[in-house]
Amino acid sequence: MKKIIAAVTLSALCVSSSFAFDAKVLKEHSDTGYKSDAKLEYKIPDEKNIPNNEFGELVKYGKELIVHTSKYIGPEVEDPKMRYAGNNLNCQSCHLDAGTKPYSSSYIGIFAAFPQYGARGNSIGTLADRINGCMERSMNGKKLPLDSKEMKAMQTYMYWLSQGYPVGGVDKLEGRSLSPIDRKMIKTQAADPVKGKVVYEQQCASCHGANGEGIKNDGRANGYMYPPLWGKDTYNKGAGMYRVLKAADFIKSNMPLGATKETPVLTDEEAYNVAAFINMDSNFRPDKADRINDFPLEDVKAPDVYRPNIETKENQVGPFGKFIK
Ligand code: HEC
Ligand code: HEC
């Protein structure tokens, strides 16, 4: 036990001294050897073009799984063997409009972006690995078997949303991933959960509940009308949404429901503060076992990864300047 504590203390010292996230190093790790400056248009394919065959059936089942995840693989489904997700969220709870809304970590073009380097595991991961990343973290559950119909269906749907995009060439596709809030502000300013609570009460609680509990739909395994933001039935501490910068990026362009990148409701500062509020330690959230092993390389470690005992409070709420090179 003493040894463990010593090791933890030592790595804490390392983090707070010279190491910082270096975008250049991440770029080197992520290089696939392909360069393209092609201007790509963000296009949502028309469902009437889904073919009437086995492929089309799987595309449709994949979409259904993204939209109604809790109904097929949620913790309340009839067959215990199918209970892969540990909460009643849907993939669509975060990947809005069945994964087609720009800047909500959209699936448009995504099939052309994998395999890719992931700093969290310091390894090359496939699209299936990435889906299972969200299964274990955002969905607080377990991996879908690679040969399951569900894994194949999700990938087939993502393939269908990506047809026509060049393999390896979607990095510059506007609308993919999330739209970052002001990266200058976050370097010098900490997020303020006290101010975030005020934003929450004014802009979020009407749907997500006074205690972040959301509003469940009637019936078993039927998910939420408004998903919970904290508590037992939501994303765990290994999830991207637990990180203040990721959550702020998502919230700014997507919440309150109806907000877009072009027509946001909150300022960057409000999004930053409310992201810190929902993810506060005093708001219970399931932990993720082995989270301690995430981001083994310090110079590609995201600045906003917060693990008590290893990371400092500043990794939780900023200011993030000293963790970014
Ligand atoms: C609680 C929110 C949340 C839920 C629920 C969720 N995800 Fe995610 N997902 C994220 C975030 C945040 C990211 C990272 C976005 C980024 O870094 O740009 C992400 C990333 C991904 C990516 C990689 C995207 C990319 O552009 O590289 C895939 C694929 C994915 N999720 C699939 C799924 C699937 C499938 C489900 C349901 C089984 C799911 N997610 C559920 C929040 C969520
Ligand atoms: C009008 C209702 C409404 C309001 C107001 C609203 N949301 Fe949401 N929010 C939703 C819905 C609905 C979803 C899930 C989308 C889906 O399932 O299609 C969601 C999803 C989310 C998610 C990802 C899913 C999860 O459970 O973590 C986060 C984070 C979130 N909202 C944060 C906020 C914040 C912060 C505010 C206030 C700034 C806010 N929302 C205001 C309706 C709302």
TrEMBL record:
InterPro entries: Cyt_c-like_dom (IPR009056), Cyt_c-like_dom_sf (IPR036909), Cytochrome_c-type_DH (IPR051459)
Signal peptide feature range: 1-20
Ranges for domain Cytochrome c: 191-282
Keywords from the UniProt entry: Heme, Iron, Metal-binding, Signal
Pfam families, A to Z: Cytochrom_C, SoxA-TsdA_cyt-c
Top-rank taxon: Bacteria
GO molecular function terms attached to this record: electron transfer activity; heme binding; metal ion binding
Signal is among the record's keywords: yes
Protein's UniProt keywords contain Protein transport: no
Name of the protein in question: Cytochrome c
Organism from which the protein derives: Arcobacter venerupis
Taxonomic path: Bacteria, Pseudomonadati, Campylobacterota, Epsilonproteobacteria, Campylobacterales
